[in-house]
Each structure stands twice: as C-alpha cells, then as structure tokens.
Queue: 2 jobs
Job 1
Amino acid sequence: MSIVKINALTVPAEQREVLERRFASRAGAVESSDGFEWFELLRPVEGTDQYLVYTRWRSEEDFQAWMEGPMKAAHQGGGGGGGGEGGAGGGAERPKPAASASTVWSFEVVQQAAPKQP
C-alpha cells in the first residue's frame, strides 16, 4: 500500500497568507511526479500554528526520487516549485521562509476506505 508524508510547518499568523500564496503558485509541480498519489495543504483552525502538508506516494522510493530530483531543484532555485513552501522559483534573491519550523512525519497506509457508491 501507499506511504504518507506529513510535513508539519510552524507558521506565524503574519506569514499564513504568504505560505498559502506560495503553495498556490506551485501549480502542478508535484502532480506529474512518478508515484505521486495525493496532496493537501491543511490550514489550522484553532489551537495550533502548524499547517500540515499531506502527500501520499506509491512507495518510499518514489518519494525519495521526488525529494532528490524536482523538489531539490525547486528549493535550490532551479525549478518551478514543488514542495516545502511551494518552491521559490529561480530568482536571484530567495524570499525568507514563511515557516519558522518544519517536521516530517512518515506513515504506511495499512487500511483505507472511500465513500460507498449509491
């Protein structure tokens, strides 16, 4: 079954809009990666300043290939986005991160369910 990676980003209130805009501008950067299955950016509603970046992958190998290829290039200014905070692009001066901390959690999917079709 699939694997899930959740990146917990600590984002100060004044940086929330910046973070969401960066993710919105990533426009398809991860979706064409081999083994990619799902992405969600989860905004905290109450009780925390952590956003969760949820991605699901066919395998750990697919995730690692994305990390070492497209995601790495995007965060070094060589690509058009695709992870972390949506990638900064290839500008001469990189903008400061919107998040003040980041922790990645890894999970294996052992059970799943979808809505029943009528």
Note: The chain has two helices and four strands.
Job 2
Amino acid sequence: MEISDVISVEDVVLDLQPEGKTRLLKALAAHASRRTGCPAAEITSVLAAREKLGSTGLGQGVAIPHARMRGLQRPYGAFARLAAPCPFEAIDDRDVDLVVLLLLPEASPQEHLNVLAKIARRLRDAEVVMRLRKADNAETAHRLLTDLPPLKSSAAA
C-alpha cells in the first residue's frame, strides 16, 4: 500500500489555522469525518487517546497523529500544512506546522501499518519537508508527499 492509496489530493489542507493541539485534532477529525463518514467526535476521541500514550510529534515541525478506528473500512489519511506552527508536545519541543493524520481500520493488516512507516520516512527527508512548506497548492503538496512525479505544468515551477 502506497501513501497515494491513503491520501488523496482532496485531503490536502493548506494553511490551516488551529489554536492549539486540541483544536488541530478536532479540525482534522471534522475533515476526516466528512470524507469517511465516521463521527468526528469518535475520531477526536481515538486521536486524543493515542496522544495520551505519547505525542505523535516526530520533531522538526512534523507530526503524524494516528489511531485505529472501529467501523473504518480502509485506511484514510489527510495532510495539513498549518498557517503558523502549533504547540504539539513533540519530542524535540518544537511546534509543528506539517501534520499527517492517519486512521486505520481496527483490525489492520501489516500492509496498512506499513503506510505509517512510509509516511514517517517521507517526512524525515529534509528536502521534501522544505518543499512541502513552500508548496503553493494542494496538488503540488500531494505529489511531494506521495512521491509522485511532478505534473508537466508544475515542472517549470
């Protein structure tokens, strides 16, 4: 399973403006709810429970909040670039500005878990992170995140 199988361009949100970690998770849950049909309150609840186990802030301004969801049929992901960095209790104490939400079905096979590792590896690439921070549209950010080749029209950009 590839990142592009989980995150579509419609699930790229640029310049999100949350006021803190809790509101960020609620905003991501609301978006995910519209796209998956799972209740936003339930998504928020499972994300908050996962964060209590330890922050999903990886450092360098990146976080990957993730959780298993009852009733979810297939993995779902969303990418958000924040308008301004947000406190997230990351391992390096830096605020985050790049966030990938990942929801997995409750009984996820290993193949689904591998996508989390692929996302983490992609977001450890300093060049990718820098370019995601500068992406001028959702399509460009999606291609950077999913490692798809650039569109012909954006090749000159």
Note: Residues 21-36 form the longest helix (16 residues).
